[in-house]
Amino acid sequence: IEVAKSTSKGIFMSQRKYVLDLLNETGMLGSKPLDTPMDSNQKLMVDDGDVLEDPEKYRRLVGKLNYLTVTRPDIAFPVSVVTQFLSSPWSSHWDAIIRILRYLKGSPGRGLLYCNHGHYRVEGFSDVYWAGSPFDRRSTIGNCVFVGSNLVSWKSKKHSVVAHSSAESEYRAMANVTCELMRIRQLLSELGFGDPSPMQLWCDNQAAIHIASKQGHKNHWR
Question: Is 101 helix (H, G, I), strand (E, B) or coil?
């Protein structure tokens, strides 16, 4: 991880050299870059295309991409998708990895910037790709947490069970990010950076917000 510090702009973290080494190792340095790491219209199936002759190559590359998500939250979702096919990768799964590499080719130096915004407010955002997996109908959650308007935590993970509705799926995602908010608030308090203002949780599903609000009132009066 490369760290650059500036008194005026803050601290910037990236893995530029790691990305360039990865592109060189896979022969993708001369590839044409793409604007997105994944085709939004593509639905990867378990047995789509041909079986890869060297599945270990696929697994090693996915592992290296997983390490890259340390400073690249923009590829967290597509990497979580290709990770689901480690046991038996097919050619379509390999093509999805190549697309991620072509996206990285266009932005090898992208990373995380941390600067002073004058506060330590803690905020969390959650969202769900409901029933997004075409072969098991499970949803994928996505959440991120900001401290002082700086991104400090993020996750993209498939649910372990099938949600019967988008509201149920969104509510589960809210519960997940709430646990992360509490963990970060506790950590900040131990480090002496506590902020007395209430933490904020943002969600775009009105049904899940209503359920969480009703549950909050019930717990308050109990």
Answer: helix
Q: What is the pLDDT of residues 197-217, one digit of tens each?
A: 899 999 988 888 888 887 554
Report the half-sphere exposure of 194 (CA within 13 A, side-chain side): 6
Query: Can you give the pTM of this predicted structure?
Result: 0.84
Distances (CA, A) of 129 to 28, 60, 81, 102: 30, 27, 12, 24
Q: Are 79 and 62 in contact (CB under 8 A)?
A: yes
Q: Is the separation of the CB atoms in 219 and 175 below 8 Å?
A: no
Which residue segments constitute the domains of the chain, with CATH numbers given? 2-112 (no CATH), 119-216 (3.10.20.370)
Structure tokens at 78: 């597509």
Give the separation between CA 171 and CA 110, rounded to whole angstroms: 32
